[in-house]
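Troubleshooting: if your tokenizer reports a length mismatch, compare your output against this known-good record of 135 residues.
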Amino acid sequence: RGVAIADLDGDGRLDITINNSNNRPTVLFNNLKKSGNWMGVKLVGDQSNRDAIGAHVLLTASDKTMMRQIEAGSGYSSQAMMVAHFGIGEAEQIDGLEIRWPNGNTQKFEAPALAGMINQIITIEEGRDTLVAQR
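Known-good structure output:
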């Protein structure tokens, strides 16, 4: 069996797909009514590999810092989405975002650049200071 975790319906809640070998996959949609705020971070490498595999994304909100690593797989026959997903609960803003790229470069974004970016996926290109949001 393989497992994939991703936001399949774009609502900010992570869903699960289970590969059942020679049967149809099982898809479990997360339909919680209240799940808090979130942010997704999609990285595009330039000097590092294009998918930013190996990058660390650190997000700070409400005096808590969370870290996600971009990885190509998370176990035998399993996969996770390439977007770093952060659940930020009741936080209304992101205080800081740091990207540690696989080649050792670091990018930092402070609260003013992240204003209005919650509950969506943002794309960051390596070496660029602009954030592109998508709903």
